[in-house]
Amino acid sequence: GERAKLNDAVLAAAAGLSTRFDGTAFGADGQARQWEVTVSPVRGGDHLITHLVAISTDVTAQRAALEKGRQNLAAAEKKIVHAD
């Protein structure tokens, strides 16, 4: 699940790779939120990894709009097919 994705991303970042994954988490209001998460290594002056940084972006609204657009396109295509 989500914990495994995060663990894999942290291990990859600790090995020097930036990793991105999509996940779902529930907010304090109980609503599911969709996230894009990137975990990357941060290197010090000696080029050794000193920290990891995780950036998470809530993409729930963008994904809902994209799905709505797909539904509208499918409905429009259906109307065109039945218009013949």
Can you tag this structure with a few keywords?
alpha+beta, 36% strand, 3-stranded antiparallel beta sheet, 84 residues, 3 strands, elongated, 44% helix
Topology, element by element:
Blueprint: H1 2-14, E1 19-26, E2 32-43, E3 49-58, H2 60-83
Q: How would you explain this protein's 3D organization?
A:
Helices cover 44% and strands 36% of the residues. By secondary structure, the protein is an alpha+beta fold. The radius of gyration is 19 Å and the shape is elongated. It starts with a helix and ends with a helix. The model has no long low-confidence stretch (mean pLDDT 92).
Task: Give the overall form.
Answer: elongated
- Please identify the structural class as seen in this structure: alpha+beta
Beta-strand residue percentage: 35-45%
Radius of gyration: 19 Å
Overall mean pLDDT score? 92
Helix residue percentage: 40-55%
Instruction: Give the helix tally.
Output: 2
Number of DSSP strand runs = 3
Query: Could you describe the largest sheet, including whether it forms a barrel?
Result: 3 strands, antiparallel
